[in-house]
Structures are given as C-alpha cells and as structure tokens.
Amino acid sequence: MSNSEPDVTRESATVLNRTDLTRRLVARLKSEEAVIGGIGFTNFDLWASGQRPQNFYMLGSMGLATSIALGVAVAQPQRKVFALDGDGSALMQLGSFATVAAVAPKNLAVVIWDNGAYHITGAQETLTVKGADLVAIAKGAGLKQAYWAADAGHFETLVQRALINDGPWLIAAKIDKERPAGVTERDPVKIRLNFMNAIAPGS
C-alpha cells in the first residue's frame, strides 16, 4: 500500500455519515482493540455498531476521549487503541494533541468526526465552521500522521493503515448532521466494569 496521501482539506473532503463510518471502522477490528467513544452521538453510534466489551462509552467528560485513550495506549502498548471524538470536544482539549505527539504511542489512533456543530445540544456552530482545521492543528502540535479522509474508501484505508502500522495517527472525517443509529445504555458502572474486565491482562 502506498504511503502517499491525497491533498485533502476540510473544504475538499466529501461529507460522510458518522454511523456508516463507525460501522466501517468496527468491521475492521478483530477482538483485542480498545475503542474509546467520546460523549454524545459519537458513542451512540459506537454502541449501535455492536456492544464490544473493549469499547468504552464515555459519559459526561467532554473532550477527554483522546486523553483516556492515550492512558490505555501507554498502559497496554501491545493493544491498538482508537479514540473517537467530535470536533467540539477536540476543540475543548487541543492540548491533548500535543501530549499525544510528545508521548508518541505507536498503538494509538484518534478519529475526529467534524460536522461543525455541537450537535447533541442544538447544533450550535463550532469554530471549524470559522476556519479552524483540526488536521492542521494536529500537525502543528507534532502529529505528523494526521489526515483528512477524502471519502469513505479513503477513511477505511487510513483505519487499516493505523491498524497495521505504527502511530500515533489522527484521522479526521467531515460528516453530516444525521442523528445516530441508537442510544448508549447509560450505566457508567456497567460500562466501566465491562471495559476493565475486557482489557485486563490475561483476559
């Protein structure tokens, strides 16, 4: 597979659907990968794509999916770890990009869904609508392998590269404002215990 990437910007990226992309990502996982779903519609779609015990459905901690995923990646360097987050959440904790770049875990990939809105609270615009480019910001923070997905096929290609090659990675997709395919079961104790048991050494 060629490592050359198309020259894609937020403006030129195809508008995609988060539910479809989440299902495409999950379909490429085997069993051991950990996936940290950010708050709101991001983890709703992760839930609707199949309740893997290796999924952590974050509730209420806006902007911390990448930081939680970084902790898992550092603690278990043999396990591939994905963080799924929205543009509003990423903008809230931009420092996490620089931390990921500094720690440089080879097993971590951060996926950003960018629809330019705080969708779950009423679709108020985020600053990506005003020109903030999360891929450019990530590269400026030191994440060299940061890319916009040109289309759904390119998104799958980037996910596969993250699964088989060293990271860290950041993959951003421009998405529509469709509602998610389901709603996460809001039981934080159950979510925590299921995830801890699934990734426990020897499990």
The overall pLDDT, averaged over residues, is 91
* Amino-to-carboxy terminus distance: 33 Å
Largest sheet features: 6 strands, parallel
Could you tell me the radius of gyration in angstroms? 15 Å
Q: How many extended strands?
A: 8
With strands numbered from the N-terminus, the spatial order across the biggest sheet is: 2-1-3-4-8-7
Envelope shape: globular
CATH topology: Rossmann fold
Determine the fraction of residues in helical runs and give it as a percent range: 25-40%
Count of spatially separate domains:
1
Report what the structure shows.
By secondary structure, the chain is of the alpha/beta class. The protein has one domain: Thiamin diphosphate (ThDP)-binding fold, Pyr/PP domains (Rossmann fold). Helices cover 38% and strands 16% of the residues. A six-stranded parallel β-sheet has the order 2-1-3-4-8-7, sandwiched between helices. The mean pLDDT is 91.
How are the SSEs ordered, and which strands pair?
Layout: H1 18-28, E1 34-37, H2 41-48, E2 55-57, H3 65-75, E3 81-86, H4 87-92, H5 95-103, E4 108-114, E5 117-118, E6 124-125, H6 134-140, E7 146-148, H7 152-164, E8 169-174, H8 188-199
Parallel strand pairs: 1-2, 1-3, 3-4, 4-8, 7-8
Antiparallel strand pairs: 5-6
Helix pairs in contact: 1-2, 1-7, 3-5
Main attributes?
203 residues, alpha/beta, Rossmann fold, 6-stranded parallel beta sheet, two-stranded antiparallel ribbon, 16% strand, globular
Summarize, please.
The protein is of the alpha/beta class and 203 residues long. It has helices at 18-28, 41-48, 65-75, 87-92, 95-103, 134-140, 152-164, 188-199; strands spanning 34-37, 55-57, 81-86, 108-114, 117-118, 124-125, 146-148, 169-174.
